[in-house]
UniProtKB/TrEMBL annotation:
Keywords: Hydrolase, Metal-binding, Zinc. InterPro entries: AstE_AspA_cat (IPR055438), N-alpha-Ac-DABA-like (IPR043795), N-alpha-Ac-DABA_deacetylase (IPR053138). PANTHER family: BLL3975 PROTEIN (PTHR37326:SF1). Pfam families: AstE_AspA_cat. This is Putative deacylase. Residues 40-221 form the Succinylglutamate desuccinylase/Aspartoacylase catalytic domain. Its cofactor is Zn(2+). It comes from Neohortaea acidophila. Residues 1-20 are annotated as: Disordered. The keyword Metal-binding applies. Transmembrane segments: none annotated. One of its GO terms (molecular function) is metal ion binding.
Length: 321
C-alpha cells in the first residue's frame, strides 16, 4: 500500500498552510501546519503529542501553529502538534491505543510493523531526512512530575548547540542509539532535542511558555525567525538565559510490581545511599528499597501509586563525566 505524501515544502513561496494528514495507510488523521518564507533557509520540524497526555507540549505547538507568516524570515517551520492523536483522545499514558506500545520507544520503526512502529517509520523515513533540525516537545505525563530540561545527544555538537540556544538551565546528555525520536534524528546527523516541561498531564501558562519560548529562541538561532522571541500576550517575554548545566541521569527501575512510595520530592538534593523510595505490597510488606548511587538532584519521578516491574521510577541528575 502506498504511503501518503506529506504536502510539499521548500516551495520558495511565502505561505501558512494548515490541515490534516494521514501519515500511514488506514491510520488516524493528524493536524499539521507549514509556515514558509519566500527566502530559502533551514527546515525546522517540531513534533508534540508523541505521548498523548503530555499536554503542555501540545498546547505550545498549537500556539506555534498560529504564528503570523511575517515572523518567518527564511526557511520553513513544520509543526505536527499531536502525533499520537489516538493517545490524546484516549488520555492514555505513553502508549498508542492501537497497539499498546510507547511510540517514543519504536524508532526508527518498521514499514510493516504495528501502528506505532509504522508511524515511527514514517517520521524517520519521510520527514526527518528532509529537515535541518528537529525538536520533539514532551512534558510530564499523567503519572510524572519533573523539573524542565532538554535532552541532547552526547557527543553530537550540533544538537548541543540547539540545547544552549533553548534557554533551559538543565541539559541532559543522552547516550547511544536510544529508540527515541530525537536520538533517531541525531543518528542521521540532524541536530535534535527532546524538550521536557510540564507535569502530571496538566498545562499552565508557565509550562507552555517554556516550550514556546525555547522554540522561538532556537528559531532565532537558526535564523528562521528574528530576535527577540515573539511571545503571545498571555506568555511572558523570555529573559536572557544563563549558561546551562550539563548532567547525566541515574535512573533506577522497579525490580518488582507493587505500590510506589517516593521519599524525595522533585528538586531534592540526594547523596549516595539516600533512600529515594520504596515499593510495598498491598499489605504494607516492603518489597524493594531504592537508594541513590550518585550525588545530585531529583529531576523527575513517577507519581503513580501503582508501579510495574521494569518501569522507570525517577531520574537523579548528576554531573556529566
Amino acid at each position: 500500500m502506498t504511503t501518503p505524501k506529506f504536502p510539499a515544502f521548500r516551495t520558495g513561496k511565502r505561505r501558512h498552510e494548515q490541515g490534516t494528514f494521514t501519515p500511514v495507510p488506514n491510520g488516524a488523521q493528524i493536524p499539521y501546519a507549514i509556515l514558509e518564507a519566500s527566502e530559502p533557509g533551514p527546515v525546522l520540524l517540531i513534533t508534540a503529542g508523541v505521548h498523548g497526555s503530555e499536554v503542555s507540549s501540545i498546547e505550545a505547538a498549537l500556539r506555534l501553529m498560529r504564528l503570523a507568516p511575517c515572523h518567518i524570515l527564511k526557511g520553513t517551520l513544520i509543526i505536527l502538534p499531536i502525533l499520537n492523536i489516538s493517545g490524546f483522545r484516549a488520555r492514555s499514558i505513553y502508549i498508542m491505543p492501537e497497539d499498546g506500545k510507547n511510540l517514543n520507544r519504536q524508532f526508527p520503526g518498521t514499514a510493516d510493523g504495528s501502528a506505532s512502529q509504522r508511524l515511527a517509520f514514517w517520521l524517520a523515513e519521510e520527514m526527518l531526512p528532509a529537515c535541518d533540525a528537529y525538536l520533539d516537545l514532551h512534558g510530564g505525563d499523567l503519572d510524572e512530575d519533573l523539573r524542565p530540561f532538554v535532552i541532547s545527544n552526547k557527543g553530537h555538537e550540533p544538537s548541543r548547540e540547539l540545547a544552549l540556544a533553548s534557554g533551559f538551565d538543565t541539559v541532559v546528555d543522552g547516550f547511544g542509539a536510544r529508540p527515541v525520536a530525537s536520538a533517531c534524528a541525531a543518528g542521521m546527523g540532524i541536530p535534535a532535542l527532546t524538550i521536557e516541561a510540564g507535569h502530571n498531564g496538566v498545562w499552565s501558562e508557565e509550562s507552555v511558555s517554556l516550550h514556546y519560548n525555547a522554540v522561538m529562541r532556537i528559531m532565532a538561532y537558526l535564523r528562521i525567525a528574528k530576535e527577540p522571541s515573539i511571545a503571545e500576550p498571555s506568555i511572558a517575554e523570555p529573559s536572557k538565559p544563563s549558561p546551562p548545566r550539563t548532567v547525566e541521569l541515574f535512573v533506577p527501575v522497579a525490580s518488582v510490581s507493587g505500590f510506589w512510595y517516593p521519599r524525595q520530592a522533585v528538586g531534592a538534593l540526594v547523596t549516595p545511599g539516600a533512600v529515594l523510595g520504596e515499593i510495598k505490597d498491598a499489605f504494607g510488606v516492603m518489597l524493594s528499597t531504592i537508594r541513590s548511587e550518585v550525588s545530585g538532584d531529583v529531576l523527575y519521578q513517577l507519581t503513580s501509586l501503582c508501579v510495574n516491574e521494569g518501569e522507570q521510577l525517577l531520574g537523579v541528575a548528576h554531573s556529566a563525566q
